[in-house]
From TrEMBL:
Has endoglucanase activity on substrates containing beta-1,4 glycosidic bonds, like in carboxymethylcellulose (CMC), hydroxyethylcellulose (HEC) and beta-glucan. Involved in the degradation of complex natural cellulosic substrates. It comes from the Eukaryota. Residues 338-371 are annotated as: Disordered. Residues 345-371 have a biased composition (Low complexity). Residues 373-409 form the CBM1 domain. Pfam families: CBM_1 (PF00734), Cellulase (PF00150). Its EC number is 3.2.1.4. Belongs to the glycosyl hydrolase 5 (cellulase A) family. One of its GO terms (molecular function) is cellulose binding. It comes from Evansstolkia leycettana. SUPFAM superfamilies: (Trans)glycosidases, Cellulose-binding domain. This is cellulase.
Length: 409
């Protein structure tokens, strides 16, 4: 999402009641689930800008809170111009680099993955990056700093858009080659596509991205998907309760047809029942296709979000209050047990394990929950492959949201 598009929609009723915790305890099919940790990319009209005024770094204590809840991946956006000023072939700014490393090392020190995200939309000082060799030089610099940390993930760039399609392909390939040549051979690389890397337009825009090659075979396509009418992630209203599923089906089929895997690097929804159904419908469909979907990341946490409609920042972000308990069942390391009805997302279930699924061989499906009985409000109650309860606790009824997901509403 473009920061300039963000609507700080402070809702008068800012703390809507959290949805009851209702999902039954089960194992997530995802390898990763987490949040963007926004801050260091703020103030992009002020380069380099001043720490504490124009930008900030994520708060490690709130990252720890989300980590304790079971999240195991955090995306750290930053600006290329602040890290490597003046020219992409230049040297890193020592202070900004040290702060980036400190944030990344904190995250990976908890056992989670840190996504190093140049939040630049394929641009450097507002000009589209056209030199693959300069871009490769930038990635040589960055990757060499993190080459020895296996829990770092390199995200080539945030949301390429309005660029030549072959250029987007070539920039990604240049980044991959540079990262591997810098000695970072064990880490995952996330490649983003054109048109803001949207899942809903992936097949029509980014088909050529299947040509990317990675000598380490740890390439993951990062897609983003918002559920408001224009897909920009600027409204707390979702199109309808199935829009999450609707918008990722074609990309899912593309991944399967081409033997690729993906990560949903940005998604969110407003704190209301339509969006909650759309979000859970999308995530359930992704889990059922976990051969190609490795996980997802909420947009966004970060200390400066205030009343932002999607803020996942503990303790008072509206999404933290409303969505954490809804998302917890999808956390890979979590031991979510649900059912306490205690409301806000204050549950802390310490995650100590990390799965090690390697793409693209996983065939895990979460749709095989055993069990009979009655599903709770918001719980899944049907859908292709579902073997769990199909009746709902009174007064809720089981409603088909899509062929893969029926929910007690
Ligand atoms: C939701 O909106 C999408 C896009 O307009 C549409 O294709 C889909 O059928 C809608 N779903 C429902 C349940 O109305
Ligand atoms: C999922 C998510 O929140 N992604 C965001 C990560 O941070 C960048 C920088 O602000 C945003 O542009 C992304 O939308």
């Amino acid at each position: 999402m473009k920061f300039s598009n963000v609507i700080l929609a402070a809702s008068a009723s800012s703390l809507v009641l959290a949805a009851p915790k209702s999902k039954t305890k089960r194992t997530s099919a995802f390898q990763w689930f987490g949040a963007n940790e926004s801050g260091a990319e703020f103030g992009n009209q002020n380069i380099p800008g001043t720490l504490g005024t124009d930008y900030t770094w994520p708060d490690t204590s709130t990252i720890q809170t989300l980590r304790n809840a079971g999240m195991n991946i955090f995306r750290v956006p930053f600006l290329m111009e602040r890290l490597v000023p003046n020219q992409m072939t230049g040297s890193p700014d020592p202070t900004y680099l040290a702060d980036l490393k400190s944030t990344v090392n904190f995250i990976t020190g908890t056992g989670a993955y840190a996504v190093v995200d140049p939040h630049n939309y394929g641009r450097y000082y507002n000009n589209i990056i056209t030199s693959t060799s300069d871009f490769a030089a930038f990635w040589t610099t960055v990757a060499s700093q993190f080459a020895s940390n296996p829990r770092v993930i390199f995200d080539t760039n945030n949301e390429y858009n309005n660029m030549d399609q072959t250029l987007v392909l070539n920039l990604n390939q240049a980044a991959i080659n540079a990262i591997r040549a810098a000695g970072a051979t064990s880490q995952y690389i996330f490649a983003e596509g054109n048109s803001w890397t949207g899942a809903w337009t992936w097949t029509s825009v980014n088909d050529n991205m299947k040509q990317l090659t990675d000598p380490s075979n740890k390439l993951v396509y990062e897609m983003h998907q918002y559920l408001d009418s224009d897909g920009s992630g600027t409204s707390d209203q979702c199109v309808n309760s199935t829009i999450g599923y609707d918008r990722i089906v074609s990309a899912t089929q593309w991944l399967q047809a081409n033997g690729k895997v993906a990560f949903l690097g940005e998604f969110a929804g407003g704190s209301n029942s339509v969006c909650e159904a759309a979000v859970t419908g999308m995530l359930d469909y992704m889990e059922q296709n976990s051969d190609v979907w490795l996980g997802a990341e909420w947009w966004a946490a970060g200390p400066w979000w205030g009343n932002y409609i999607y803020s996942m920042e503990p303790p008072s972000g509206i999404a933290y209050q409303n969505y954490l308990s809804i998302l917890e069942p999808y956390f890979p390391g979590g031991s979510y047990s649900g059912g306490t009805g205690s409301g806000s997302g204050s549950t802390t279930t310490t995650a100590t394990t990390t799965t090690t699924k390697v793409p693209p061989t996983s065939t895990t499906s979460s749709a095989s929950s055993t069990g009979t009985g009655v599903a709770q409000h918001w719980g899944q109650c049907g859908g292709q492959g579902w073997t769990g309860p199909t009746t709902c606790v009174s007064p809720y009824t089981c409603q088909e949201l899509n062929p893969y997901y029926y929910q007690c509403l």
